[in-house]
């Protein structure tokens, strides 16, 4: 009897501690409430509406793949090594999602990671990363190089 | 169901997110990114971006200028702590200059011979047009002065206080498209020669200043402040009450707050305090107390001998999160303090040393 009670209360707790989120590709995902609470957009909704956690909360701008990555990142306490396995697109997806979900710590973490990735990379690499096409004429490019001359002489490694 | 491939949102990241990333990129690489495309170039070149960048993530650097040389040496604070004392780079300036102040990543230079003042951003190497003054050659060494930003009128201003025989003249030089010079009311107090460089915080300039008693002896130390918005002088109390114990006080900025460092005779240690909220005397917070330190190459500093002639005052330049501190001494040396073992290591850096934030702020704005 005692055992059953214990299992029941454990099951209840798990029920309370999870929130169902519905991703852009229609996947319903049960997410621990501690993780959901980092998502200000969901948290404020839950707190204001005292909502039924079993009704999926729609996230029309976040794919299930991105949400998976976010959950793993939060679970791993923002592990750099794990994040280094992300493709460029994944990094950008997580950035956009962190902004949409209003996850301050994650946004900070991912924006810093991208900044570190871009540092010391060639201009061409940056263009590829942001999907940007060079729209300068050679003359305009020379002008920019001239006005910021010291930047293009590789002196400091700091 | 309407399912977009996830990468479709990313063809163009929203500008606010691109900005959020760029704020975290050091200036040097940021300036390289101007070559990426026109829109990134105009984003990085925009004065608003420069302001946001300065507020969110500017790197603190040191700059030194040696009398008689027309270049500035730039130092990385991290490298100094790793015993790499060489400069990161140097930048050439015209003329022989004295640094009058540092604010928002901009240095104010006074040409000793031509007697004009110029604003110079060492991160972008851009300068403002020169602003002539009525100083005579070399006179700037005898003035008390300060350089700072009036955030209400969005103008850079230089205060020059001259003493000609018994007469004192106080003038404010305002930079900008329409620059102006205004004579303002004199201060009743006058800093000592070693403390004549004002430090700018929250639209004010600040000097450590003695109040003299009978026989011109120092009765009390106060902070003389000049409000750059109203262009008037004021006074503030030092922390920790009894200023009789205060010896060799210096004033500077740490974490963008006013910071004072002095030797406390009674406690027999150096005390570093920051004023967390400018102008609020209750917000003075003790940052560190340094006593019984081990000296490398500076046998003259012993606590009990703090008032000896050879012992320099400690001018606080930087304090890290974990209590590593960097002081400038009056004798052109830098002292690195390590709280873990209480050691003070000496680094020789020639010339007059200032700290500044790497910023994109235009000196002509």
Automatic annotation (TrEMBL), chain A:
Keywords: Ubl conjugation pathway
Pathway(s) of this molecule: Protein modification; protein ubiquitination
Superkingdom, natural source: Eukaryota
SMART domains: Skp1
Positions of the SKP1 component dimerisation domain: 104-150
Keyword Calcium appears in the UniProt entry: no
One Pfam family, short name: Skp1_POZ
Domain SKP1 component POZ: 18-74
One Gene Ontology term from the biological process aspect of the record: jasmonic acid mediated signaling pathway
Gene3D superfamilies from the UniProt entry: Potassium Channel Kv1.1, Chain A
Annotated signal sequence range: none
Family stated for the protein in its record: Belongs to the SKP1 family.
Subunit field text: Part of a SCF (SKP1-cullin-F-box) protein ligase complex.
Biological function: Involved in ubiquitination and subsequent proteasomal degradation of target proteins. Together with CUL1, RBX1 and a F-box protein, it forms a SCF E3 ubiquitin ligase complex. The functional specificity of this complex depends on the type of F-box protein. In the SCF complex, it serves as an adapter that links the F-box protein to CUL1.
Protein name (Swiss-Prot/TrEMBL): SKP1-like protein
Originating species: Sphenostylis stenocarpa
Automatic annotation (TrEMBL), chain B:
SMART domains: FBOX
CDD domains: F-box_AtFBW1-like (cd22157)
F-box domain ranges (all copies): 7-53
Pfam families, A to Z: F-box, FBA_3
Name listed for the protein in its UniProt record: F-box domain-containing protein
